[in-house]
Amino acid sequence: MRTFDSYVELCALFKENPHQDGARLVDPDLKMDFLYAVYDALRELPNSIHKSVLKSMINAICQENLVLRRKDEVRAMYILVQCPMFGHQSSCLIFAQLLRRIVHLPASDHQMLVHWLKILEVPRLRSMVRNLMHFLSLRQFPTADPTHALPEPNKIKWWIPTAARMLAFINAANNSCRPPLLHFSELYHEALDHIDLAADYFRWQDPSPCSSHFSYCQYPFILSINAKRLILTKDSEQQQMINARRSLETKASRQVSQVDIFFLNMTVRRSHLVEDSLKEIQRASERKELKKKLRMTFAGEPGLDMGGLTKEWFQLLVREIFDPDKGMFVYHPHSRCYWFRIPSSARTWDTAESASRAVTAPSSPVAGAAVEAELVQDDDDAVVARLVAASEEEESLQQYNLIGVLMGLAVYNANILDLRFPSVCYQKLLSPPVVPHADLHLGVVRNPSLDDLAQIMPDVAHGLRELLAYQGDVEQDMCLTFQASIEEFGAVKTFPLKQGGEDIAVTNQNRKEYVRLYLDWMLNTAIYNEFRSFYLGFHSVCASNALIMLRPEEVEMLVCGCPRFVLHDLRKVTEYDGYQSESAAVQ
């Protein structure tokens, strides 16, 4: 087993060219099939051989001052970290030393390692993740068995941070692949659901210089959706207690019952649901009470809200706002989801005017910014028409803000909403995850793709793919110009995608530009003001560092629940009344 005795031997055996100096970013230039075959054979050998190999690895890892060709050190570590024997507890000390060496490599080697991880076969990458998870569990939940005792905890405090860092490299490699090699949930360490997550989160939040303790929140991809939901709940409770204390301080000036200060009390009429909800949310925002526990009352109806009235309010409000007659959202039958209605005043290529509108557009009923129409000297009918249009636009933006607040309240109060937004909507909600001081480019997806558009309009995305792949003369055969068209109430409206777009033909040479501009207009520009209000409404409730830890898919799960049912999981919690799992009716 001298092969594993040193980095020199490893590189001599597995490098395609043993004399190669340096390495390529895209490929480690190793005999990967041969390496896989060696490890597969090693897995089937007896334990005595495993022990010999592990002893050889110790020699290789602990050797100092070796004379190696450039990048052979990171190559050797890349070879060793794939070893299947690191899934056994007996190898944890050696695995820890290897991970420590990897973490202490220079940043350029880390970048190279991330790229090399992308070319691994998926089962190999999955096996590596499994070994790292097992290693984390050994340190986080040490066994009481004296035959498998670990060194003293103070001596191995670095084990968890180094394993988490290695998982971060794998996560970076996975996220840079399209599609990802692993589903993001495969990097969850669900055993961590049982640690003190609140303490871990608040330790991560601690800004004091002396707070240098490790926190799993630094590596949120490790935490499961259940763990993140618990962290959000604890953060919500902390915010609610802070608001309650503030209310206690002002209680002397207002006659408020002791219990009411802990709740966001809202009273609405069923006949004026949207209007009353807007007023109540504006009032709550002015008093900074949006992060209190929600408690609903329907005017003229006796009843104490134990959760049912709040849930009913959510359901009724969602149903009314998404009513097609409201015209706020458009249902796309091909994707079975809703998307923002593109207004007739949608922004186009004129970025200067767009930026001006973005600043002056009312962000929410909370902000209360009125639209100031620039009235020209014109006849009275034109002036009235513009005033009416401005008023309607402000009311529309307020309602978009309301649905954003509604989603935020649902997350904060652990309610599931019956919403059907595409995943790109949640991606936009986290762009950026924290509202910046400069109020520009909120909810903008950078470099949107055809896959993003396909979530909403798969037929349109398919047509654009056909355009890009078309072998004939695009200009002569398709007769397209740099315009986007939408149908609204039976009428087709067109919008230029660039200055003079109505006169610029789409050709074989500029069709990529056309697709890029079309995607950006459809997913960002055309609905910027509407989504901005929606974005600010959501973040007015959910503004929290905990939100930084979430992926768009996880936000969707918190708002809408799991979008897909797994039959295996459903069977585990199913209770049969008069039937058995093997009954013909059940099967």
UniProtKB/TrEMBL annotation:
Its EC number is 2.3.2.26. PROSITE patterns: HECT. The keyword GTP-binding does not apply. Keywords: Transferase, Ubl conjugation pathway. It holds the Pfam family HECT. It is an enzyme of class 2 (transferase). InterPro entries: E3A/B/C-like, HECT_dom, Hect_E3_ubiquitin_ligase. Coiled coil: none annotated. It comes from the Eukaryota. Gene3D superfamilies: Hect, E3 ligase catalytic domain, Hect, E3 ligase catalytic domains. It catalyses: S-ubiquitinyl-[E2 ubiquitin-conjugating enzyme]-L-cysteine + [acceptor protein]-L-lysine = [E2 ubiquitin-conjugating enzyme]-L-cysteine + N(6)-ubiquitinyl-[acceptor protein]-L-lysine. One of its GO terms (biological process) is regulation of signal transduction. One of its GO terms (molecular function) is ubiquitin protein ligase activity. Residues 286-587 form the HECT domain. The keyword Ribosomal protein does not apply. PANTHER family: HECT-TYPE E3 UBIQUITIN TRANSFERASE (PTHR45700:SF9), UBIQUITIN-PROTEIN LIGASE E3C (PTHR45700). This is HECT-type E3 ubiquitin transferase. It comes from Frankliniella occidentalis. The lineage of its organism: Eukaryota, Metazoa, Ecdysozoa, Arthropoda, Hexapoda.
